[in-house]
Specification:
This protein has helices spanning 21-32, 50-62, 75-82, 91-96, 115-126, 131-135, 146-155, 175-184, 186-189, 202-210, 255-261, 264-267, 275-290, 296-307, and strands at residues 8-13, 38-43, 66-71, 88-89, 101-105, 108-112, 139-142, 168-172, 194-198, 217-220, 244-247, 270-272. The protein is α/β, with parallel strands linked by helices and 308 residues long. It folds into 2 domains: 8-113 and 277-307, Rossmann fold; 117-272, NAD(P)-binding Rossmann-like Domain (Rossmann fold), CATH 3.40.50.720. The protein has a 6-stranded mixed sheet with strand order 2-1-3-5-6-4, with helices on both faces. Helix 1 packs antiparallel against helix 14, helix 2 (50-62) crosses helix 3 (75-82) and helix 5 packs across helix 7. It starts with 7 loop residues before the first strand and ends with a helix.
């Protein structure tokens, strides 16, 4: 972390050099007229010490040309370690106790949780309209980190009426993270049938998946397959028929996705990767950091640039 000499957007993660955004952002910056703006990665180990998170926040807050950041993997840990250092915390970030976007506006250093918006936009790209109302399926979110909490918040919005999953299940290998999720999702649990389950091993997750009804949604929100090797399920996993399987990562070994693809035809599964989530996740942050609207034709243009 060295003093920025030109407008800089940061990517706070674990293996940021491997991300496609490092090649995509310069072309996006040109298309958006963000002259001389660059992107830099800040890599931290999983569940880094509190002091490291505070050091990063102190640097970004005080450096004039450090414009903001996208946060992945560390969303909850960073918030818990440094929430007293923010001048403004948006309502989603307050409710979820996580931060996925850092920005500056009117002299204030701001924390945002964009995942309820970006994950919702990604889900609406492949989940059929009225899917839950028509089929009464369930949602299984593997992992109880920031992405799963954000998706739970998305499903629990009052605007959906009766078009909601019959159950939303959060499964995680450690109980403290599940306890934390329950606490943050109390208000959501008043609107939807929210259940937390302990799944310490991939075999345990296999058993949870086997109990799901047809027309369910199973999401890998663990980071396994990207930030760490492996999958939250085994090769013996048996998916319910006519279901949706979402690997929210778009890079890495993606073992979870390949396990699902092996059953795609036999079980009539729709298997989705994390590319659209990647696009919405980044464009939501760039829009906030640089105070420019990114939607409609602009969004389509950026998506085309990224694909190319």
């Amino acid at each position: 972390m060295q003093k920025a000499t030109q407008p800089t957007l940061y990517f706070i993660g674990v293996t940021t050099k491997s991300s496609s955004i490092m090649k995509v952002f310069p072309k996006w910056a040109d298309a958006l007229g963000l002259k001389d703006t660059v992107i830099k990665g800040i890599d931290l180990p999983l569940h880094a010490p509190k002091e490291q998170y505070r050091e990063v926040i102190s640097f970004l807050k005080s450096d004039p040309l450090s414009m903001g950041a996208l946060v992945t993997t560390h969303k909850i840990d960073l918030f818990n370690s440094a929430n007293d250092m923010f001048d403004y915390i948006d309502p989603y970030a307050q409710e979820l106790s996580e931060v996925s976007c850092l920005s500056k506006k009117d002299g204030k250093f701001c924390a945002h949780a964009k995942d309820p918006i970006s994950s919702g936009l990604a889900l609406e790209n492949f989940v059929p309209e009225n899917f839950w109302k028509e089929h009464n399926g369930q949602v299984l979110l593997l992992g109880a980190g920031g992405s799963s909490l954000a998706m739970s918040l998305y499903f629990g919005q009052e605007k959906w009426g009766d078009n909601v999953p019959s159950k939303v299940i959060l499964a995680n290998r450690s109980t403290p993270r599940l306890d934390s999720a329950k606490e943050h999702l109390k208000r959501v649990a008043e609107r939807i049938n929210l259940i937390c389950k302990h799944g310490p091993t991939p075999a345990d997750n296999d058993a949870i998946i086997a109990d799901l009804p047809p027309y369910s949604l199973i999401v890998n929100a663990t980071g396994l397959g990207k930030d760490a090797p492996g999958s939250p399920t085994t090769d013996n996993v048996k998916y319910p028929e006519n279901s949706l399987v979402w690997e929210i990562n778009y890079r890495g070994e993606l073992l979870f996705m390949h396990q699902a693809l092996n059953q795609k035809d036999a079980k009539n599964l729709h298997v989705e990767d994390g590319w659209i989530y990647f696009i919405h996740g980044w464009t939501q942050v760039i829009s906030e950091v640089f105070h420019i609207p990114i939607e409609g034709e602009t969004l389509e243009k950026l998506s085309k640039i990224a694909k190319e």
